[in-house]
Amino acid sequence: MNKRGIVIGAIAITIGIMITVIAGTVPSFSPPSSETVNLDVKRNHGSISTVMGSPILGDPKAPITIVEFGDYQCHFCKEWFHETKPLIERDYIDTGKANMIFVDMAFLGRDSAKAAQASYCAEDQNAYWEYHGMLYDSQEPTIDGGWANTERLKAFAFALGLDMELFNSCLDSDKYSERIRYNIQQARENGISSTPGFFVVGSDTQQFIRGAQPYSTFQKVLTPDINTHADES
pTM of the predicted model, to two decimals? Predict the structure, then answer.
């Protein structure tokens, strides 16, 4: 009986190992199902899959798309958000010349991924960009210093007047954790190693801008692209 028990135990362990190995071969960054992510359109911009990124800011039919890779705990991302983005919105996004998508590279600390998840919980209530802005407005210098912990993320949602039962349920369940992992993979596959990083994508062009560059840098890239599209039309 003892020998028989040992054999049965060995077989069980072997089966367990085989299951683990097989499970390990499944890609860990497949796009979440439509039941998990409420997006109305599949998006690809240049080499970048933006289907798991933010809602489009601006006219979806604009000829140019600016794809930003960022982390809510990134000081330079906050700097760009306050100093450069308003000018781009005024001259390009609000005028229909370009649109913008934010793709998370949440890698700086443990609170980065949770903050990114929270932005999509806010999106469930049509408040993505408002929450996005509140995160950068509230950013503090210390990474994982507590300003973006779960309780603060919930407090931001409350300040925006969101349905807290829905928001808390979303955040506590890690509903969008796979979405964040997918976006991080997109960043790595496109050579992003620091934040912020930008791609300016036209119908047949894709140009990379590294770091929190000033408005003039974006002007030099955006204006020729827009003029080219105007000539073609």
Answer: 0.80
